[in-house]
Predict the 3D structure of the following.
Amino acid sequence: MHDLIIIGAGTAGLSAAVYGARAGKRVLLLEENVYGGQIISATEVENYPGIRRISGYEFAENLYRQAVELGAELKYEKAVSIQEEGGKKTVVTNRSSYACEAVILATGAKKRRLGLEREEELTGAGVSYCAVCDGAFYRGKDTAVAGGGNTALEDALFLSGYCRKLYLIHRRDQFRGEERLVRALREKDNVTMVMESQIIRLNGKDRLESITVKNRCTGGTGELAVTGLFIAVGQEPDNRAFSEVVRLDRDGYIEAGENCRTDKGGIFAAGDCRTKEVRQLATAAADGAVAALAASAYLK
């Protein structure tokens, strides 16, 4: 029997584990893949208060060690449902089941796909969702980045140091990301911005060889010869397993306010998986703290 089970060991989940363990609760973390979440793929973190510069991997490693040293337990299992009976909750995984009194959902969000034909087929064969992970494979080659937010701009800057030529493709006439990133990209000789355009086709036999791009204003199409396409068009949550337990909004995010409380007593939501305006490293950590303290108060 655990006091608190946290589903997801990203920044929000690990932060919740730190605060839960510090509150003297028996904490179990359940993680499907690896601890750390999306931040582990960041080469450099410069926007976390109090830390001038740190790699994403080091940040996640430090947070994990802090949680474990305080007494939190981590199991690599996928949570598939939450059951409730007599005020007690049971989290069912792909391997076992665990009883507890409170649950924090910190499932995060995953990379959104473009929804193109052959996108899944060519993933790993020219199509990637992680520039930091795969960028070095495209040294001296021509590539493209799809997206207009900070992630896309940061990916383009990172790849511009490896690639011979890089196309940054965005469907609008202005980027949503920070202006400083846009300015830095405009200074790169090997970066071409393709605005008001979208990718409509992936071409190639066994690997990506080119992409077909359509201008949204003129309707005209053209082909760009690239061997790598890095997709950075946002995120989407994966909360379907809990849709019968807590209320989700139309986009699949868990409905929970800044107090991280859901509509179900004893179940809380923290991080990118919940409805919120800002999804940053600092807000994920803050959510973890708020959710853990709320859960601890509920347990009393």
Q: What stands out?
A: The CA atoms of residues 46 and 53 lie 5 Å apart. The chain is about 25% helix and 25% strand.
